[in-house]
């Protein structure tokens, strides 16, 4: 597990290099904040930028670049991480881990999401080193108090910068023992490389790094109905330890699927026809109640409960239209 209420370095098991945010215009001197991280509710947050580690484009598949991005309030499975046995993995899929591309222990090498390897995996192993004194965790409260059904506001858009959508502004390494170096990245020009003079895909010095292309529809459609059916079996039939890695988005989809099926069983059991004017409201209410139950069982924060409730209600509307043909 990651340490709580403290900043830390994420050091490669290959040597002294650490995960770093590449910023072409800022030389570190006595500033190591680009290299320091804290862990909150599954997110790895950079001290300097206050942005989180994000799988670019929301595409959680092997060999996908990592970037920094604003912390999302919903659909955040590509931003939530766990740490176990030296691997930093997606909570939604522990088989996908933080990986040094090409296995190189060289400053400036970019990081990617990659399939976990059973052997020769030193480029996927990390050592977390706490830094400084512990701090008091901020109290997280939802904007709607004790109302678990309140809608969570959208986060602000990324800050305006010269080049906010660089191809791979996040995921470089630097030497934690040399924070005063004037050029801690040491990249070498390569005319045959698709990134031109910067072979590791980091943002050029013309703009502030640390931003990536926005994920498509971060507040869009819920998980597909078929996927919800599969996750439902995990959430409702497997022991707690087997489903601890599931994201709130997946649990919300499972809750919505359960709500659709529960409503159908109830109406059929009573021999009543389906009243299409009430289906969506009824199914959404059942889904929200399921989320409240999960939140109590797993001690979710009020913020997490609100986000999951919103996701479950949206999924319930989507699935009920498919299942019952309601409008």
UniProtKB/TrEMBL annotation:
Residues 169-206 have a biased composition (Polar residues). Residues 138-215, 297-327 are annotated as: Disordered. Residues 297-310 have a biased composition (Basic and acidic residues). Residues 5-129 form the Ricin B lectin domain. It comes from the Eukaryota. Coiled coil: none annotated. CDD domains: beta-trefoil_Ricin_GllA-1. InterPro entries: DUF3759, Ricin_B-like_lectins, Ricin_B_lectin. It holds the Pfam family DUF3759. PANTHER family: CIPC PROTEIN. This is Ricin B lectin domain-containing protein. It comes from Circinella minor.
């Amino acid at each position: 597990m990651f340490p709580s209420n403290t900043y830390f370095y994420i050091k490669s098991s290959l040597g002294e290099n650490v995960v770093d945010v590449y910023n072409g215009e800022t030389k570190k001197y006595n500033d190591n904040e680009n290299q320091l991280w804290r862990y909150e509710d599954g997110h790895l947050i950079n001290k300097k930028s206050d942005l989180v580690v994000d799988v670019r484009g929301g595409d959680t598949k092997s060999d996908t670049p990592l970037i920094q991005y604003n912390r999302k309030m919903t659909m955040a499975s590509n931003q939530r991480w766990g740490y176990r046995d030296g691997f930093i993995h997606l909570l939604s899929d522990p088989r996908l881990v933080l990986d040094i591309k090409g296995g190189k222990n060289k400053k400036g090498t970019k990081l990617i999401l990659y399939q976990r390897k059973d052997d020769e995996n030193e480029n996927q192993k990390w050592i977390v080193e706490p830094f400084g004194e512990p701090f008091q965790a901020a109290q997280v409260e939802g904007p709607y108090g004790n109302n678990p059904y309140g809608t969570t506001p959208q986060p602000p858009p990324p800050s305006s910068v010269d080049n906010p959508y660089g191809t791979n502004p996040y995921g470089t390494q630097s030497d934690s023992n040399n924070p005063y170096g004037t050029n801690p990245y040491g990249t070498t020009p390569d005319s045959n490389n698709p990134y031109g003079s910067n072979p590791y895909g980091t943002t050029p010095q013309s703009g502030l790094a640390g931003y990536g292309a926005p994920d498509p529809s971060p507040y869009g459609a819920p998980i597909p109905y078929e996927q919800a059916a599969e996750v439902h079996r995990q959430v409702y039939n497997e022991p707690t330890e087997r489903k601890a890695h599931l994201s709130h988005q997946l649990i919300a989809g499972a809750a919505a699927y359960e709500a659709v099926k529960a409503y159908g069983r109830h109406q059929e059991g009573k021999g009543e026809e389906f009243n299409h004017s009430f289906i969506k409201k009824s199914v959404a209410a059942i889904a929200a109640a399921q989320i409240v139950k999960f939140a109590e069982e797993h001690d979710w924060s009020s913020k997490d409960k609100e986000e999951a409730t919103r996701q479950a209600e949206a999924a319930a509307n989507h699935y009920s239209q498919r299942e019952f043909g309601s409008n």
